[in-house]
């Protein structure tokens, strides 16, 4: 879900991708109130899930934001990586 959220923030909200990493705060990632509004609309359009801006902006980190969205959509928060063993 993190990769999908990052992609939405880049393509829909026009944010640069570099600062959007899991462990940083929304503010450090450049996710302001306008980006949160755009993300909320994109989630409804693309994933058919409604999460209001207040709930999205309350996430302390980008990872927490992705986890919140994952819980609401039933998707995994982090994409599974194939085992190399």
Describe this structure in words.
The structure is a single chain. This protein has four helices and no strands. The longest helix is centred in the middle third of the chain and has 15 residues, at 33-47. With 85 residues, the chain is mostly helical. The model is unreliable at 80-85 (pLDDT under 50).
List keywords for this structure.
85 residues; 4 helices; globular
Quick recap:
The chain has 85 residues and is mainly alpha-helical.
What order do the helices and strands come in, and which of them pair?
Blueprint: H1 2-11, H2 33-47, H3 53-57, H4 62-73
Helix content: 40-55%
Find the count of extended strands (DSSP E, 2+ residues).
0
Give the percentage of residues in beta strands. Answer: under 5%
Calculate the terminal CA-CA distance, rounded to whole Å: 24 Å
Radius of gyration, CA atoms, in whole angstroms: 12 Å
Largest sheet: none
* Uncertain stretches of 5 or more adjacent residues: 80-85
Strand/helix succession? HHHH
What structural class should be given to the helix and strand makeup? Answer: mainly alpha
Mean pLDDT: 89
Q: What overall form do the CA principal axes indicate?
A: globular
**How many helices in DSSP terms?**
4
């Amino acid at each position: 879900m993190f990769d999908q959220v990052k992609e939405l923030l880049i393509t829909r909200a026009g944010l640069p991708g570099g600062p959007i990493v899991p462990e940083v705060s929304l503010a450090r990632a450049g996710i302001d109130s306008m980006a949160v509004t755009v993300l909320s609309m994109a989630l409804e359009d693309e994933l058919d899930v409604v999460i209001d801006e207040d709930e999205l902006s309350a996430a302390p980190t980008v990872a927490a934001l992705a986890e919140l969205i994952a819980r609401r959509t039933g998707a995994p928060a982090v994409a599974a990586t194939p085992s190399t063993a």
